[in-house]
Amino acid sequence: MSAAPGTTAAEGEPHPSQFALMRQRRFAPFFWTQFSGAANDNLFKFAFTVMVTYQLQLAWLPPALAGLVIGAVFILPFVLFSATSGQLADKFEKSRMMRAVKNLELAIMAVAAAGFLLPTPNLQAVLLLACTFFMGLHSTVFGPLKYALLPQVLKERELTGGNGLVEMGTFVAILVGNLVGGVLISLPGVGPIAVAAGCLLTALLGRLAVQFVPLLPATDPGLTINWNPLSETWRNLRLARADGVVFTTLLGISWLWFFGAVFLSQFPVFAKEVLHGRESVASLLLVVFSLGIAGGSLLCGRLSRGQLETALVPLGALGMSVFTLDLYWACRDLPASDPLGAWAFLAQPAHWRILADLGLLSASAGLFSVPLYALMQVRSPATHRARLVAANNILNALFMIASSLLAGALLSAGLSIPELFLALGLANLAMLAWLCVRMPEMVQRLGRWGRGG
After folding, report:
1. Cβ density class 221-252: b for 16+ within 10 Å, e for less
2. Which of 43, 93, 193, 224 has the fewest C-beta atoms under 10 angstroms from its C-beta?
3. How far apart are CA 162 and CA 170, in angstroms?
4. Which tens digit of pLDDT belongs to each residue from 228-278?
5. 3-class DSSP state of 56
6. Strand, coil or helix: 13
7. Please, what is the average pLDDT of the chain?
8. Taking 50 as the threshold, does the pLDDT of residue 9 lie above it?
């Protein structure tokens, strides 16, 4: 099935409210399953990152690189196992696979709970890094199920709104997970115990939600699984390249994850070393960033007026660069101070511009991403959709690993975190130019959309 950018619902059909989907079994249990999984991933990862940054003293995992290392370990399974996961999602009934994935999450979180309670810092970090890898594996298997499910249960005119809800839910879950993880790990004396209990409870809630996901028949039950991840990864990438629009879309989505991974991995050390803030300031940055993406994702449904509206892609990309560059100017010369809590940080007007830039660049990222996901789903054949989603996940993982390696190299070479943001904003302008060359219809559509067409 294919559609041109900007296609509308049939004449005379009312534009569906995206929020109506939250009352329907075809969507709501899946939404809450996805929400709980994203929340748990981030509760666990952020608590672990804050613990390494502020509490543990590990020579082999310094605070400046902790977020990058933990992020890279989490992403590695996407490179190794996405191709296999895409085949499984096309071959088997999806609700049963989702229940198996949530069972795996419960087992991983039981091991992680033990890891948080170990008394030896080095052994603790090693075990939690192993759990990080397996949580990445859990998310790798779930990813193709998630994005292949939506076109199976939603009408084409519902896809932008449905994707907007999923993106909103994902980043609100990231926010909730990071906030709860940061708060729990900071509780004096009981932080690790509280995090362990929080991870187990969230995994259990996700397992309960997935029980209500309706049956979703396999789209290619006769598929023969190729268990060789290397050859299947290459096959998936060739499949994606066969449609130039799909492949360009996948690269655009992957760039978004490159862009976002830099910010998410740097928030703890950015808060500590640049903004002179305590753990609560790192949590505040995550609040603003996550709510910005959630707001931008929901805004897509309203701005697209019931269409698959690709005009929002270049508009969002431009906003990402403008506000990232302004963030560099806003934070590069902040005066030194004693460590600030969140309320003391908010009391200083100089910090308001930083928070505004962060919120607006993340809202722009939401505008950028939702139409790309919807376009990928519409242009992908049903029998190969999960494998194309797997190709997207492979590219996302490669881009995020590259993000971690490049950011780590630039920081080790002497760049400050504000200078890293400057480089990212300029690189995003180059990406926007490339995207406009590859898909000039988006720019043409932006002109018509701006005139109300």
Report:
1. eebeeeeebeebbebbbebbeebebbbbbbbb
2. 224
3. 12
4. 988 988 888 888 888 888 889 999 999 998 998 888 878 878 888 888 888
5. coil
6. coil
7. 86
8. no
2 in any annotated domain? no
Which helix (H) or strand (E) is 284 found in, with range?
A: helix 279-303
Cα torsion 158, 19, 323, 358: sign: negative
Q: H helices within 304-439, ranges in order? A: 312-331, 342-346, 350-379, 385-412, 417-438
- Can you say how many angstroms the Cα of residue 257 is from the centroid of all Cα atoms in its chain? 7
Q: Is 409 exposed, middle or buried (0-12, 13-18, 19+ CB in 10 A)?
A: exposed
Phi, psi (deg, nearest 5) at residue 277: -115, 165
Closest to 45 (Cα-Cα) out of 185, 168, 167: 185
- Residue length of the chain: 453
Is 442 a member of any domain?
Answer: yes
Q: Which two tokens stand for residue 92?
A: 């088997």
User: Which three-class secondary structure state does DSSP give residue 242?
Assistant: coil
Encode 339-361: b = buried (16+ Cβ within 10 Å), e = exposed.
ebebebbeeeeebeebbbbbbbb
What type of residue is 335? P
In the numeric block, which tokens belong to residue 77? 């399974």
CA separation for the pair 62, 132 (Å, rounded): 17
Domain enclosing residue 367, as ranges:
25-221+228-450
Residues 69 and 61: beta-carbon distance below 8 Å: yes
- pTM score, two decimals? 0.77
Does residue 305 form part of some domain?
Answer: yes
Do the beta carbons of residue 250 and residue 240 sit within 8 Å? yes
CATH number at residue 299: 1.20.1250.20
Asked if 148 and 241 touch (Cβ cutoff 8 Å), the reply is: no
13, part of any domain: no
Q: What percent of the chain has pLDDT over 70?
A: 94
Please tell me the distance from the alpha carbon of residue 371 to that of residue 449, in angstroms, as a whole number.
Answer: 14
- For the segment 26-64, what is each residue's pLDDT rounded down to a tens digit? 999 999 999 999 999 999 998 998 888 777 878 788 887
Number of domains forming the structure of the chain: 1
Q: What is the pLDDT of residue 3?
A: 40
C-alpha dihedral, 384 to 389 to 390 to 393, nearest 10°: 170
